[in-house]
Amino acid sequence: MSSPRVVVVDDHALFREGVRARISGELEVVGEAGTVAEALRLIRAERPDVVLLDVHMADGGGLAVLEGVGAELPDVRFLALSVSDAPEDVIDLVHAGAHGYVTKTIEPGELAGAVRRVAAGEAVFSPSLAGFVLGALSRLTPREQDVLRLIARGYLYKEVAQELGISPKTVEHHVSAVLRKLQLTTRHQLSRWAAERRLLD
């Protein structure tokens, strides 16, 4: 298996150099960026497999990068790497499309492994953070979780209705509730959010 191509985004040059030095033996670091504008240009030019993304930077940070290119480049995957373990940071980045979130206390060998897992399609979270993401799901009723699971698998509303023995109108009601609780806006976002994170497999 070829090494994933990685872009490192962080506003501290020393930290970027350290990350490059630690992971370049296992991964192909194709560029670094210290600002949101640099990151957007670099990601569009290189189209890496994974972007290691600092959450807080002076000019907007990880959220601004995700909002800038996340939808435009769906094949690029984003792994947040932050000193922050605040629940609101984790949830904000996950809602914006990050495929994982680890703290900067992660061991170098574990970081390379996390990048490989994200590149392979997994969702990766530091153990202490996974609960925050799952907490967003805990607000869903069992029936809403059933509907979310089927929608994530690509079922149409009428197919969900047949599977669960409810009306398509009831399915639509449940989907609306799930979107509201997870702070998403479209069924497509819902499918992508659930499927990419494999939280309901």
Describe the structure.
The chain has helices at 13-23, 36-46, 61-69, 87-96, 108-119, 127-138, 142-152, 157-164, 168-182, 187-197; strands at residues 5-9, 28-33, 50-53, 77-82, 100-103, 124-125. With 201 residues, the chain is an alpha/beta fold. Strands 2-1-3-4-5-6 form a 6-stranded parallel β-sheet, sandwiched between helices. Strand 4 (77-82), helix 4 (87-96) and strand 5 form a beta-alpha-beta unit. The protein is elongated and about 55 Å long. The mean pLDDT is 85.
Keywords:
six-stranded parallel sheet; 13% strand; elongated; 201 residues; Rossmann fold; Arc Repressor Mutant, subunit A; 6 strands; alpha/beta
Summed up, the domain count is 2
Number of helices: 10
What oligomeric arrangement do these chains adopt? single chain
Radius of gyration (Å)? 18 Å
Strand arrangement in the largest pleated sheet:
2-1-3-4-5-6
CATH topology of the largest domain: Rossmann fold
Write down how many β-strands occur, each being a DSSP E stretch of 2 or more residues. Answer: 6
Would you list the SSEs in sequence order as H and E? EHEHEHEHEHEHHHHH
Describe the global form. Answer: elongated
Structural class category: alpha/beta
Going by CATH, the homologous superfamily of the largest domain would be: Response regulator
Q: Judging by the overall fold, what is the CATH architecture of the largest domain?
A: 3-Layer(aba) Sandwich
CATH domain class name of the largest domain:
Alpha Beta
Terminal CA distance reads: 25 Å
Mean pLDDT score: 85
Largest sheet: 6 strands, parallel
The percent range for strand residues is: 5-15%
Measured as a percent range, the helix fraction is: 40-55%
Spans where pLDDT lies below 50 across 5 or more residues: none
